[in-house]
Amino acid sequence: MDEVVVEVEKTKREWEDAYEKTIEHIMAIQEYGKSRRGDGEGKVSLQRLNGLAQDGLSLLNSLQFNLDLLAPQLPSVDQVQSTQSLLETWKNQYQSLRVNLRSANLQAKNNIRKTAQEERELLLGGGTESTALRRKRQANAGVTSDAESITESLRRSRQLMVQEVERSTNTLVAFDESTGVLKKAESEYKGHRSLLSRTRNLLSTMQRQDVIDRLILIIGFSLFVCAVVYVVSKRIGILRLQQMATAAIKARMAGKAANDDAMPLGQQFDGNTVPNVNIPLQQRLHDEL
């Protein structure tokens, strides 16, 4: 609550200061134009005085709004009522200042018109006063031309600065676009890099698989050759055994036939003897096998 009271007191002080300054500006507007041009008075233009007065009115309106917000937050009812009554007084003073500002502007216009009429009469008339007034007019004209040249130079400088700012803005926009393009290229490069990495891994896998397939083929072919050699060697051994058996049987049969030829004829046809049937040797060997 103490903070609210402090804020209210601060607002009141600011109101008093702004009110006094605004009244001074309005009085200056009301007196504007009464003195002749070039007399050293009226250094502040009417537009400037009106701007200062409008700023003061805006500040007073803001302080009035702040007091309206702070009034209900005061600790006691008496303070709230007194602040609200003060707020009503401020509103009336604010309206009065606005009316006075309009009246002061009208008075300033009348003063300017009267002063111009007086200067016109002096210029048309004769005498030293008219000559002095003409000299002042000429001096003011020189000052005015210098001020216009300075203003034109400032205007050109401002135009150059505006162009430079626009150029800088365009450069920044171009940089932003380039940055966007580079970021896009970087993202695409990252995508291609991941694709290349997967392709490299796939090629490595295919190479390993190719080596494994070659090893399998070599091992399989080697086993097949071994099997063929084994089968051939076994087959050759059987044939040799068969030839040896055949040769042995032939030799035995040849020996037996020789023995039969050497026996007597009676013994050959003995009833107890089994007749010798001429069976081809190759057929018998084939049957045995």
Automatic annotation (TrEMBL):
<keyword id="KW-1133">Transmembrane helix</keyword>
<dbReference type="GO" id="GO:0006890">
    <property type="term" value="P:retrograde vesicle-mediated transport, Golgi to endoplasmic reticulum"/>
</dbReference>
<dbReference type="InterPro" id="IPR056173">
    <property type="entry name" value="Sec20_C"/>
</dbReference>
<keyword id="KW-0175">Coiled coil</keyword>
<keyword id="KW-0813">Transport</keyword>
<dbReference type="GO" id="GO:0031201">
    <property type="term" value="C:SNARE complex"/>
</dbReference>
<dbReference type="GO" id="GO:0005789">
    <property type="term" value="C:endoplasmic reticulum membrane"/>
</dbReference>
<keyword id="KW-0931">ER-Golgi transport</keyword>
<protein>
    <recommendedName>
        <fullName>Sec20 C-terminal domain-containing protein</fullName>
    </recommendedName>
</protein>
<keyword id="KW-0812">Transmembrane</keyword>
<feature type="transmembrane region" description="Helical">
    <location>
        <begin position="215"/>
        <end position="233"/>
    </location>
</feature>
<dbReference type="GO" id="GO:0005484">
    <property type="term" value="F:SNAP receptor activity"/>
</dbReference>
<keyword id="KW-0256">Endoplasmic reticulum</keyword>
<dbReference type="InterPro" id="IPR005606">
    <property type="entry name" value="Sec20"/>
</dbReference>
<keyword id="KW-0472">Membrane</keyword>
<comment type="similarity">
    <text>Belongs to the SEC20 family.</text>
</comment>
<dbReference type="Pfam" id="PF03908">
    <property type="entry name" value="Sec20"/>
</dbReference>
<feature type="domain" description="Sec20 C-terminal">
    <location>
        <begin position="145"/>
        <end position="236"/>
    </location>
</feature>
